[in-house]
Design brief:
five-stranded parallel β-sheet; single chain; 5 strands; alpha/beta; about 300 residues
């Protein structure tokens, strides 16, 4: 319980640092690479004419709508003229309205995705239970082999988990196709532990793998969204991620980050069980590259 509490404290600071880092990066990039439209408008607003201030205020109040308007529509909505719109675009460093609208679209997309990812990480941290985390760590520590399951974007998380535990010489198995994963599940015994990744909790291939593992007596850890699902119901232990991403999505984004983050926490908790042994194994398995600082190799 003690080491799990330490891990949570570390990651609480990590989140604060991550938020501050992102904010610093965004602040640094304003007016440079990202061509921050909203910041530029706020900065020049006091020096604009009354008509130009109307345009600037409309864009600041309605940035999302602005990205869908033509120059004539923006002029009409802001009670100005197309020439005034072009003039204010040039005042803040753009050649015309088309360039401003493009920059604004990129800016909103960047901020939206970044803020959603940050919120997903923070929500996921709050969903994790210390007792559940500690039990998962003990299962992994006592298991002969860690069996990893996932398809699609969840497979990426499974592979990342495999590489992490490989650094600590913990035997892991991950197969890429669902048929191989099913065979892997059927060969599982009570000496193994399975970790199943499924954001939806409804992936039929993962449900089948869980049933096969439980039939062989293997305990199962599920990493899934905080929502009633068959995966969560079947698993022995569940590490929840925030359910803030629609199942009808064009690709996993914040859900993938949340799953990766959960495994970072689990891996750190596992590694903290024996600090000296962990550092020895990390030193042994580090692949040095040209330019890396030399360190003393431990015996």
């Amino acid at each position: 319980m003690f080491y799990a509490s330490i891990v949570f404290e570390i990651f609480a600071h990590k989140y604060d640092f991550f938020v501050q880092l992102v904010q610093s990066i965004l602040k640094y990039n304003r007016g440079i690479d990202m061509q921050n439209v909203l910041l530029r408008l706020r900065e020049v607003q006091p020096s604009l004419s009354s008509t130009e201030r109307q345009i600037a205020q409309f864009i600041l109040d309605n940035p999302d709508e602005t990205t869908t308007l033509t120059i004539r529509e923006l002029a009409r909505r802001s009670f100005s003229s197309p020439s005034s719109v072009v003039r204010i675009c040039r005042v803040i460093g753009f050649q015309g309205y088309k360039e401003l609208r493009h920059a604004l679209t990129l800016e909103l997309a960047t901020l939206g995705v970044t803020h959603k990812n940050i919120q997903s990480l923070l929500d996921t941290q709050r969903l994790l239970l210390l007792d559940e985390l500690e039990q998962c760590v003990e299962l992994i520590a006592n298991a002969r082999t860690v069996l990893l399951f996932g398809i699609g974007s969840s497979l990426c998380v499974a592979k990342d988990t495999y590489l992490k535990f490989l650094r600590l010489d913990k035997p892991c198995v991950v197969n890429e196709d669902s048929h191989s994963q099913l065979l892997q599940a059927r060969n599982a015994t009570a000496q193994d532990v399975g970790i199943v990744f499924s954001y939806s909790g409804q992936t039929m291939e993962m449900i089948q793998c869980i049933k096969e593992m439980k039939a062989g007596g293997a305990p199962v850890i599920a990493v899934t969204r905080y929502y009633p699902s068959e995966v969560a119901q079947l698993a022995d232990h569940v590490l929840y991620v925030a359910a803030n991403e629609s199942l009808f999505r064009n690709g996993a984004m914040s859900s993938r980050l949340s799953q990766l983050n959960v495994m970072d926490i689990l891996y750190t908790a596992y590694a903290s069980r024996n600090h000296e042994d962990t550092m020895r194994r990390l030193t042994k398995t580090h692949i040095y590259k040209p330019g890396d600082p030399e360190v003393l190799t431990q015996p």
